[in-house]
Amino acid sequence: MNVPSKVKCFAWRICKRILLTKATLCHRHLISDLVCEACGLAAETTGHLLWDCNKAKEIWNGVSLNLEGLGNGCDDFTDILWKFIENETSSPMNLELFITIYWGIWLNRNEVRNGEPVKSGREIVRRALYLVDEFSAANLSTQNKTNTKEFKWSAPSRNKLKINVDGAIFKNAREAGVGVIIKD
Asked: Strand, helix or coil at 22?
């Protein structure tokens, strides 16, 4: 999946059911109010926040992805994700956008909780599209710049020495190491 690490980590947290929604925090006895701040109508579970909430529905209704048959009261992101992947029209780019929009909803939720203004559904989708496009372009330009010529080690010519050196620094242990190989 060609998305930034922060989006991959977010998807992993959802799949492992460790995303810190209000319902999760309430279950851990860290907070007592589990009502969704976006709509005030239901508990803020992963499924509600990212799929069933009116704010999430506004976002998903404005996306040009085939979302037919997804969700339907399902609280499990992995079920929704698998249904999306099994969808005949889904492509890697669509999957990247789908997951990045989920991340965008979560990001906006956190921004609002930290005093920033609520973003419109259109702005969240636009930001997700930009992030996917920017990340793909950055990785494409990196891939194009790599040298595809393969180098193989060769023995030195007669009466010559070849010295290969490598080193490593272990910052936390405040140690360093060096390795040297000399071949005639």
From this structure: helix
For the chain, the residue count is 184
* Distance of alpha carbon 132 from alpha carbon 174, whole angstroms: 38
Its pTM stands at: 0.71
Buried b (16+ CB within 10 A) or exposed e, 64-98: ebebeebbeeebebeebbebbeebeeeeeebbbbb
Q: Give dist(CA 54, CA 14) in Å, integer.
A: 20
In the chain, where the domains are located: 5-145
Please, which residues have CB within 8 angstroms of residue 177's CB and are 6 or more apart in sequence?
167, 168, 170
pLDDT digits 0-9 by tens, 81-114:
777 777 756 677 888 988 999 999 999 999 999 9
CB 124 within 8 A of CB 108: yes
